Structures are given as structure tokens and as C-alpha cells.
């Protein structure tokens, strides 16, 4: 795939602090896309600045690692104005963060805003529960939901790159 496809199919995952859910989603999509040989710009950010520069939560790193994905090198950042033009899709992990993204979106933004589960049949609008205040099991549960959502998004992105409506 050439750079044009990569730009058009870029995805930014967004949660609150960018240390739990969105880094896991970024890691899953990066891994799945690479396994399929699909070039896709992937990143993650938070709506809040609490953890800017920090690595993902150790529990998120651990659950990703158990599934063969290393997210330890990611660093939290806050969503910025350029993201609304750089990515084709900005995908929030829950309704609250989708509203936070909408509130920041410039009037002429080109990114399409949606939620992770919107591409999963029968689960549109569903939140991915924030595991931050939970135990390791909450991170595993979030991972499972994120994986389902990302799989559906990857299928959509591949079809989008081929010029198909999905």
C-alpha cells in the first residue's frame, strides 16, 4: 500500500488518559493490520492531559503482553487540533470521550468521529468500560471487547481502502 492509502485509512483511538484502553486498541490494530499486510496509520490519544508522556498502565502492558503485543513503548498524549485533519477516523472508546472529542473538533475537521463498537453488528454505541479502577480481570475484559471492535474496524478500513462501502 502506498502513503495515500495509509493517510486515508488512519485511525486515532481516544480514551480519557491514553494509558489503558486507547493504547490497547492502538496495539491491537497495529498488530492485526501488520499481520494482514495492511498499511495503516494508527495512534492513540487522551481527551485529558493527566498522563502526558507516561507509558501505558502496567496492567494494560501486561494484558497486551499476554496476547503477544508489546505496547510498552507508547507514550500518552492529549488529542490535538492536527489530529482532526491527519486521521480519517477518530474512534472514541466511550460516549463521554466521544463528546470530549466532538467539543474539541474544529468546524472544518476532516476526520470522521465514532465509537469503537460502532462497526460491530448489534453493538453500535456501546462503551468499552474503563478498567483503570479495576483489577487485572477488568483489563482482560476490556482487551476482549477492544479486540472485537478493532477486528471490525480493520475489516471496514480494508474495504474503505478498496473503495467499498462497509
Please give a quick description of this structure.
The protein has about 170 residues and is an alpha/beta fold.
Supply database-style keywords.
four-stranded parallel β-sheet; disordered N terminus; single chain; Rossmann fold
Task: Characterise this structure.
The chain has 166 residues and is of the alpha/beta class. It has one domain: 3-Layer(aba) Sandwich (Rossmann fold), CATH 3.40.50.2300. It has 6 helices and 4 strands. A 4-stranded parallel sheet has the order 2-1-3-4, with helices on both faces. Helix 2 packs across helix 6 and helix 3 packs across helix 6.
How do the helices and strands line up, and which of them pair or pack?
Blueprint: H1 3-8, E1 11-15, H2 21-36, E2 42-46, H3 58-66, H4 83-86, E3 89-92, H5 95-104, E4 112-115, H6 136-161
Amino acid at each position: 500500500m502506498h502513503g495515500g492509502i495509509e493517510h486515508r485509512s488512519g485511525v486515532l483511538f481516544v480514551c480519557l488518559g491514553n494509558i489503558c484502553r486507547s493504547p490497547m486498541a492502538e496495539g491491537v490494530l497495529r498488530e492485526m493490520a501488520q499481520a494482514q499486510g495492511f498499511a495503516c496509520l494508527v495512534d492513540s490519544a487522551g481527551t485529558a492531559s493527566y498522563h502526558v508522556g507516561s507509558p501505558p498502565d502496567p496492567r494494560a502492558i501486561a494484558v497486551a503482553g499476554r496476547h503477544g503485543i508489546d505496547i510498552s513503548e507508547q507514550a500518552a498524549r492529549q488529542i490535538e487540533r492536527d489530529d482532526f485533519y491527519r486521521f480519517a477516523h477518530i474512534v472514541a472508546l466511550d460516549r463521554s470521550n466521544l463528546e470530549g472529542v466532538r467539543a474539541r473538533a474544529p468546524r472544518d475537521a476532516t476526520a470522521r468521529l465514532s465509537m469503537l463498537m460502532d462497526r460491530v453488528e448489534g453493538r453500535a454505541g456501546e462503551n468499552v468500560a474503563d478498567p483503570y479502577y479495576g483489577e487485572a480481570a477488568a483489563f482482560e475484559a476490556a482487551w476482549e471487547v477492544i479486540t472485537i471492535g478493532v477486528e471490525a474496524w480493520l475489516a471496514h478500513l480494508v474495504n474503505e481502502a478498496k473503495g467499498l462501502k462497509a
